[in-house]
Amino acid sequence: MQLPDPRRGDDGVELRYVAKATVLRAGPEMMHRVKVEWGATPPPPRVAPVRRLSVENLHSAVQDAAGELFADGYYQPAVAVAFKSLEVRVREMTEVPKSGASLMGDAFAFQKDCPLIDVAVHDGQSGRDEREGFHAIFRGVMLGIRNPRAHELFSSEDPQQALEYLGLASLLHRRLDAAEAKRQGS
């Protein structure tokens, strides 16, 4: 609620917040009045230090593969081609002539000291755990999302859920970027 108050500077407005308002009915309607209990000024809204999830903020490979499909309302095909782009990229990086979970198993084989694609950013046990985890994630997205039998992954009319899947594909592409940079740096 804004109240005029000449003591509040040039704009003459003071912001006050209502904690509770009660209509007191006494006699005819013109005699009714409102009792207001003022509350403390609420804290300013919190703003996250990151950009909102949108197609424009996703990895360029996901934007290129799925952006137009998503914008045109083809959510399931957008998700399918985003994960297909991930599969194609891993195949190109490794030159392993496989597809799906089998390709990911070979590419991210954490049992080796040096997997074909090393997405770990830590050393020691943390690095080994990270490799094992991303091995499972990359295989999992091929089995659970990319698998052609998973046609009804989510409601075809749910853009939010599709965007969240695209966000996962984007994250995995970014991990591949880091692995490529690491490979070129060594």
Q: Overview of this structure, please?
A:
It comes from Phycicoccus flavus. This is TIGR02391 family protein. InterPro entries: CHP02391. It is built from five helices and four strands, in the order ββββααααα. Helix content is about 50%, strand content about 10%. The model has no long low-confidence stretch (mean pLDDT about 85). The protein folds into two domains: about 1-40, no CATH class; about 55-185. The chain starts with a strand and ends with a helix. The protein has helices spanning about 60-70, 75-95, 100-105, 125-145, 160-185; strands spanning about 1-5, 15, 15-25, 35-40. Helix 1 packs antiparallel against helix 5, helix 2 packs parallel to helix 5 (about 160-185) and helix 3 (about 100-105) packs antiparallel against helix 4 (about 125-145). By secondary structure, it is mainly α. Strands 1-2 form a two-stranded antiparallel sheet. Strands 3-4 form a two-stranded antiparallel sheet. The longest helix has 27 residues, at about 160-185.
